[in-house]
Amino acid sequence: MRAFAWAAILSAATVCQADGGSSSPQEFTQIERGRYLSILSDCSGCHTVPGGKPFAGGRAIETPFGNIVSPNITSDLETGIGTWTDDQFDAALRKGIGRTGAHIYPAMPYNAYTQMSRDDVLAIRAYLNSLQPVRQSRNANTLPFPFNIRSAMAVWNALYFKAGDYKPDPAKSAEWNRGKFIVDGPAHCGACHTPKTLLGGDRKDQYLQGANLQGWSAPDITNSRRAGLGNWTVEDVATYLKTGHNRVTAATGPMAEAVDLSTSRMTDEDRAAIATYLKSLPGKDESGSAPVDANVMAAGGSIYRDQCSACHGIEGKGVPHLFPSLADSAMVRSNDPTTVIRMVLRGARSVGTKGEPTAPGMPSYGWQLDDRQVTAVLNYVRNSWGGAAPSIDAGRVTRVRSDTASRSD
Description:
By secondary structure, this protein is mainly alpha-helical. It folds into 3 domains: about 140 residues, no CATH class; about 110 residues, Cytochrome Bc1 Complex, Chain D, domain 2 (Orthogonal Bundle), CATH 1.10.760; about 110 residues, Cytochrome Bc1 Complex, Chain D, domain 2 (Orthogonal Bundle). The protein is about 40% helix and about 5% strand. Strand 1 and strand 2 form a beta hairpin. The longest helix is centred in the first third of the chain and has 16 residues. Pfam families: Cytochrom_C. This is Alcohol dehydrogenase.
């Protein structure tokens, strides 16, 4: 693991020695390493309710099978993990086996965390143990039968889970290997960006090519030119991970939270490694899209000029690091238009970070535009300025409108 906040570590070690040496610098190093690994793993994203006590759990994680409520992972003896042994903690994170021997649902991405080493996992535990324990019970999961039968996870594991530490590829650079380890291991990017089977397992033949979850569509993050990162540079990717913004786009929705809690707090070296790895992934070959009806394009162009061009420009280029470039946006041209439909209907606010604190937002147009008008403007945006994407029909917009209306987020 790379160097972290060594000044803080040495300062803490000095205080400790002045107090009689009850702890060693090595222990502080392990705690700081665990703190950073918890950032790479985005532990706070699931185990902290917004505005709640850190790592005290209680957040409902939406899955296609029902909601799973995250547990308290503070060191509280009664409601947390204070009585767990190191072996039990390691088995939970890297093998998906709980303290009682029951299977853990893969909403906790043990199928990715398995690539971390035991030392990595125990460093995370040391960090969690260093925090103030919180006594907080959690509500029960809301999984219907038969998904509430944990023993069935043995079948899921046989199909989709293979335990084992990350094994570097000797033919690749250290930076590439570091990036792949983070993406496939602690950062568990595939949990959102890899399409899933009916049973919730990864479709490995569509690795990181985008997926639909929690009312959003996570984009393709391979090097596809139309739908992925093919038109981004390594620097573009790293800047996006650091600030939530770059010359093309801005992070919103679940990715905004991931940037806020995880990627913006990583080291520059790790963000560059992630970018190097993602840019090495070949994009899927794309076939041409059928032309959109000329009347739809004309109607969409009129709406765009009236409602969108003030921020995004007549040519769709936006303002770098402020308003996304629709002409260059792979998300806009994604095969799954859920996110862009949702953003037009409900609006969105981008993430604010130390590097880009403004956090500009997009207003909602769902009250102003009907489903046919939303369809027209999105088909115009997706197929203008040299872009091409599959046509959206009004029925798709109607379904997304209905889904978003039932959500509080």
